[in-house]
Specification:
The complex is a heterodimer. By secondary structure, chain A is mostly beta strands. Chain A is built from no helices and eleven strands. In chain A, the strands form two sheets. In chain A, strands 2, 4, 5, 6, 9, 10 and 11 form a seven-stranded mixed β-sheet that branches. The N and C termini of chain A lie far apart (about 40 Å). By secondary structure, chain B is mainly β. Chain B has no helices and ten strands. In chain B, strands 2-10-9-4-5-6 form a six-stranded mixed β-sheet, with no helix packed on it. In chain B, strands 1-3-8-7 form a four-stranded antiparallel β-sheet, with no helix packed on it. Chain B is globular, with a radius of gyration of 13 Å. The model of chain B has no long low-confidence stretch (mean pLDDT about 95). Classes of the chains: A mainly beta, B mainly beta. At the A-B interface, β5, β9 and β10 of A face β4, β5 and β9 of B.
Amino acid sequence: EVQLVESGGGLVQPGGSLRLSCAASGFTFSSYWMSWVRQAPGKGLEWVANIKQDGSEKYYVDSVKGRFTISRDNAKNSLYLQMNSLRAEDTAVYYCARVNWGPYYYYMDVWGKGTTVTVSS
Amino acid sequence: IQLTQSPSSLSASVGDRVTITCRASQGISSYLAWYQQKPGKAPKLLIYAASTLQSGVPSRFSGSGSGTDFTLTISSLQPEDFATYYCQQLNSYLGTFGPGTKVDIK
């Protein structure tokens, strides 16, 4: 079964750090771009970051540039999101998603159930 | 590039035909996907490349459009279709989502 399972969420104080993990199974992880998407309470979806199959290309939404780092370990079939200098507005459910990307198409076809990050003092 | 969706919400009855529009501020070719999300659940892919139905998605869902204007149509609304729908575009390697359209029961 194709599956993504996020972990690492929790309560953190403003200015703190957290590392999210996403364990992939049931597909060839190293063949896919991967993404993190978040959803603040009661709000819409926000794309956060993309990483290429070999980790050589990474892209971020402006609001997290310089604070968040996306990475992956293909040997461990795992995706990560290192979040530093956290702010209250980073409070959200964080989803990892498998990306299909080619000529004229870009979509996320497999999603995890999400992990909740709360930034509060 | 910004995405707008209209309407932001709608009320409809089972059996109704529902159309949701997604508009990009600049042309995005066919890099447009549609997702359905129910409360407390992860999003589910419905349509990609503007008009290709994802495997396993009922044929009552369809997508059309290119360039800047796209539509998601549900031909006959079913009870399980009451949810929020998001479009997503790719531009300059960034995968921006639209603000969402909530479909609820009339």
